[in-house]
Design a protein that fits this description.
The chain has 2 domains: 3-140 and 298-328, Quinone Oxidoreductase, Chain A, domain 1 (Alpha-Beta Complex), CATH 3.90.180.10; 143-266, NAD(P)-binding Rossmann-like Domain (Rossmann fold, 3-Layer(aba) Sandwich). 30% of the residues lie in helices and 25% in strands. It has 11 helices and 16 strands. It has helices at residues 51-58, 69-72, 134-139, 141-154, 170-181, 195-200, 212-219, 234-243, 257-261, 277-292, 309-318, and strands at residues 3-5, 8-16, 25-31, 39-49, 85-92, 104-107, 117-121, 125-127, 161-165, 185-189, 204-206, 226-229, 250-252, 265-266, 300-305, 324-328. Strand 15, helix 11 and strand 16 form a beta-alpha-beta unit. Helix 4 packs across helix 5 (170-181) and helix 4 packs across helix 10. The longest helix is centred in the C-terminal third of the chain and has 16 residues, at 277-292.
């Protein structure tokens, strides 16, 4: 139950106290938010952990356009952590008719979801299917919409052969499943220990490292028609440029000067990048539908209590375990 201080109902939230390493994260108390007229308050049952979260307070995140700072969670003096979650609606605004108190929901986009309670516009809320667990529901959207955006940007679909770099990461796992569901052949790079999982999801796995281009040619003698870079390495860029003839069908979710100069599509919130807001929003209902039907799998690597957010970030930065990390308040 939330505490009460000076007649304010208090709850827990994780915030960085300064810029630095995960040790700067602190579990603090804050008033339970109130719903705006067009918004809701949700009691969080699971919040997805994503690399963007630690990049925001570590100083490693690239520049963000002013128009996209709210979406990235950095409009305030210190970044807000947690850009996706799932939970139960506890309050609705006066103008809200699309959801009711007690509804189980997925919330995305949102900021400050590393908390017991979060507030968001009603337009950010989708009904959580009963067939989807809390951890999966809270971890579906950020990687799922990013993958959908990447497939849209490259035009990947039936008849294509798509090379996905970083296939065992959160976005890569989603991109594999969405591309294969669309009728594409998928070649995905990953460490050999993760190849069995990639095969389960429908990809032809190849190990990254020296000789990658030749291994991809062997796996896809028909050639590569599109490439999605979820890895951000020089190898991923070089091999994509070597194998995919049309640079407009290469997309990267990572930013670097070399990528900006290469004539490929850059996806994200930074200068010269495409945020794809409309594309990502439109993808949300389809992602929920597929996840509910178990035709889209949300791979969970490990769950942590909310109070152990710093441990979750330390694990995420050091681990190569495939799938998503989740915080459970």
């Amino acid at each position: 139950m939330p505490d009460r201080i000076n007649n304010e109902v208090m709850s827990r939230i994780v915030r960085p106290t300064t810029y630095g390493t995960p040790e700067v994260l602190a579990l603090t108390e804050a008033p339970v938010p109130s719903a705006a007229a067009d918004g809701v308050v949700v009691e969080v049952r699971a919040a997805g952990v994503n690399p963007i979260d630690w990049k925001l307070y570590s100083g490693a995140f690239h520049a963000v356009d002013e128009d996209h700072k709210d979406a990235a969670g950095i409009a305030a003096s210190m970044p807000s952590l947690g850009l996706e979650c799932a939970g139960v609606v506890t309050e609705i605004g006066a103008d809200v008719t699309s959801v009711q108190v007690g509804d189980e929901v997925i919330v995305y986009p949102v900021t400050a979801a590393y908390a017991d309670y979060v507030t968001a516009p009603a337009t950010a809320v989708l009904a959580k299917p009963a067939t989807l667990g809390w951890a999966e529901a809270g971890s579906l959207m950020l990687c799922g919409t990013t993958a959908a955006h990447a497939l849209h940007a490259t035009g990947a679909g039936a008849g294509d052969t798509v090379l996905i770099h970083g296939g065992s990461g959160g976005v890569g796992l989603m991109a594999i499943q969405l591309a294969t569901a669309a009728g594409a052949t998928v070649i995905a790079t990953a460490a050999e220990r993760n190849h069995a999982l990639l095969r389960e999801l429908g990809a032809i796995p190849v190990a990254y490292g020296p000789g990658l281009a030749d291994r991809v040619r062997t796996a896809a003698p028909q050639g590569v028609t599109a490439a999605i870079d979820c890895a951000g390495t020089g190898e991923a860029l070089d091999v994509s440029l070597e194998l995919a003839a049309d640079r407009t069908r290469i997309a990267s979710i990572t930013g670097s000067p070399r990528r900006a100069e290469a004539g490929i599509k850059l996806l994200g919130y930074g200068p010269g990048q495409d945020a794809g807001t409309d594309i990502r929003n439109a993808a949300r209902p389809t992602l929920v539908e597929h996840a509910a039907a178990k035709t889209l799998r949300v791979v969970i690597a490990k769950s942590f209590p909310l109070a152990e957010a710093a441990a979750a970030h330390t694990f995420g930065q050091a681990s190569h375990t495939p799938g998503k990390l989740v915080l459970i308040p």
